[in-house]
Task: structure prediction
Amino acid sequence: MNVLIVGGGGREHAIAYAVSKSPKVDKLYCVPGNAGIAGLAECVDIKVMEFEEVARFAKKIKADLVIVGPDDPLAGGIVDVLEKAGLRVFGPAKNAAILEGSKAFSKDLMKKYNIPTAQYEVFDKAADALKYLDSAKLPIVLKADGLALGKGVLICNTLEEARTGVKEIMLDKKFGTAGNKLVIEEYMTGREVSVLTFCDGKTIKVMSSAQDHKRAGDGDTGLNTGGMGTFSPSPFYTKKIDDYCRKNIFKPTVEAMAAEGRPFKGVIFFGLMLTEDGPKVLEYNARFGDPEAQVVLPRMKNDIIDVMEACVDGTLGKIKLEFEDNAAVCVMLASKGYPEKYERGYLIDGLENFDGKDGYYVFHSGTKKKGKGIVTNGGRVLGVTAKGATLREARENAYKATEWISFDNKYFRHDIGKAIDEA
Ligand code: AMP
Ligand code: GLY
Result:
């Protein structure tokens, strides 16, 4: 079959890698892709938000399945446009992608269906939000309602910070229309864990757990980023916690979406906080995590095409998801200055060191071809991933592999997966 992947980051490279292993796939395409994905798929420069162009291209190549990676096109309704053109698509329709696209929607859904999450209020007027802050407990969390490149969440330690945050989001529109509504939420403490799941509208199957490292600097310092590294599985996500989440969070979420007339087909990524009062939902994402996909997918034993087709067809109940009994760690190599100011265009050396090395992967996030070489083309450049029998071994392997790559201004965190030492 012919498969088209929509997106062009490390997550899509990890998806492309998994898809390329399927014996069912004859030809793989990606829009727009990147220099790494180009090793597995024919990449064509069509932007992910140009839905009609993507649909035309998918028809032209006779795509039997289209897989959508990123959040923006999903929230914008790309799946509806592609389906209307007669294509088979893996990913949630617009009315289900709202689970990530609107935090006010997702919080109200959780309240209505008793899914554990932080206490909150939703505001559409800055004056009301500011008044509410006067009697709120600190620290407090502000969340712009819509998508804001992962930057729309502010954790405020003082009333002053919170007041400034409300003004920036709602009045100055720092995140554009994403700030038309604001969620103000109770601050929770605990360990964070990411759980990726497949859904077919009524059934949900859980993949292996993972943990992200969002801050730019070692020891969780510095600014929030798209993710500086991940490990999978999380040793803190025990069988007992998993049982609780399946019963009280995962199943109720899929059933709630179905009950609301918004059946969810695709990946729901649950961002969870393991609090003293039990696991609670921090956020939902309507897609694979980046760089969670880079540590979860290489450990999946199933043919990903079988699983994705079952999600589309509503037959996920028949699939037994299986993961290798090992671990993986991904260290993001970034360009110094990310997530603020950084340069692009540095020549990358050493990519060939990964060729033929079992259990080692280099997923491209921001790269492009230039002449005969490959150059940096983003803040997050490469996700160096390695497997190991244990998390410690995977971490050692991943850090060893970071040395195989060089480019000017290469920057990475040195403590990805360090938390496992406390487990
Ligand atoms: P989100 O985009 O909702 O995942 O938020 C980004 C990050 O902010 C999360 O990964 C948490 O580290 C933090 N965060 C979000 N909501 C809360 C909360 N209610 N309490 C504490 N931290 C939070
Ligand atoms: N790594 C976090 C995310 O994909 O949202």
Notes: DSSP finds twelve helices and 22 strands in the chain. Residues 118, 141, 150, 153, 155, 185-188, 192, 214, 271, 282-283 surround adenosine monophosphate (ligand 1) (CB under 6 Å). The first strand starts at residue 2 and ends at 7.
